[in-house]
Amino acid sequence: MTRIVVVTGASGTGKTTLVRALEARNLPGVRCHYFDSVGVPTPEAMTADFGSPEEWQAVTTRRWIATLAEHGDPHHVAVLDGQVRPLVVRSAFAGFGVTRGEILLIDCSRAVREARLRDERLQPELASPQMAAWAAYLRGQADALGLPILDTTHLTVAEAGQELAARIQAWAAA
Q1: How far apart are CA 61 and CA 109, in angstroms?
Q2: Which residues contact residue 71 at a Cβ distance below 8 angstroms, ignoring those fewer than 6 apart?
Q3: What percent of the chain has pLDDT above 90?
Q4: Radius of gyration of the chain (CA)
Q5: Angle formed at CA 27 by CA 24 and CA 30, multiple of 5 degrees
Q6: For the segment 7-17, what is each residue's pLDDT rounded down to a tens digit?
Q7: Is the pLDDT of residue 112 over 90?
Q8: How confident is the model at residue 73, as a pLDDT?
Q9: Which of 61, 100, 129, 151 has its CA 20 to 30 A from that of 81?
Q10: Sign, Cα dihedral of 163, 168, 172, 174
């Protein structure tokens, strides 16, 4: 069965940057996927169609895991980049019989995350108390579940990208 690695984290932690850097390495058997590539409806549409944004995220997470789990090549690693709840991912892994699934949290300090959002991404509206709470929630879930965390606070993109690639290669070899 394909190994599925879900890379999660709050906006500004560097997860998409790192997954893109991983993709650029063209590692044999590693394919990168982006959660938001399916389109992200407005919060109002999520609520109208799914009951809440959280339920839209859960349904979409399950769809992604189902799609990635269909690939049966044991030498293939599917990396999914997205802001998803680790417990929802674990539930989807169990529901679709994924025995080779990993979740990696990309995290950084609040000050670094907010500076990236304001200065690099030019999205100051995301440097909000709500995003800080989301980042803390994800960190709390990762800690509670014993998930690996890649802290990008003091790493360059090259250093963090190397660390991500090393983890992916180690999981692929396991």
Answers
A1: 26
A2: 2, 78
A3: 66
A4: 16
A5: 100
A6: 999 999 999 99
A7: yes
A8: 64
A9: 129
A10: positive
Backbone angles phi, psi at 117, to 5 degrees: -65, -40
Q: Please work out, in degrees rounded to the nearest 5, the angle formed at the alpha carbon of residue 103 by the alpha carbons of 93 and 85.
A: 75
Q: What are phi and psi of 78, to 5 degrees?
A: -105, 120
Q: Which residues pair with 105 in a beta bridge?
A: 8, 149
Give CA–CA dist 156/35, Å, rounded: 24
pLDDT single digits (tens) 55-106: 899 999 999 999 998 876 666 899 999 999 999 999 999 999 999 899 999 9
Per DSSP (E only), the strands in the chain are 3-8, 30-34, 77-81, 101-107, 149-151
**How many beta carbons lie within 10 A of that of residue 24, not counting itself?**
10
Encoded tokens for 5: 């690695």
Question: Considering the chain, what is the average pLDDT of its residues?
Answer: 91
Structural domains of the chain ordered from first start:
3-173 (3.40.50.300)
| For residue 172, pLDDT beyond 90 | no
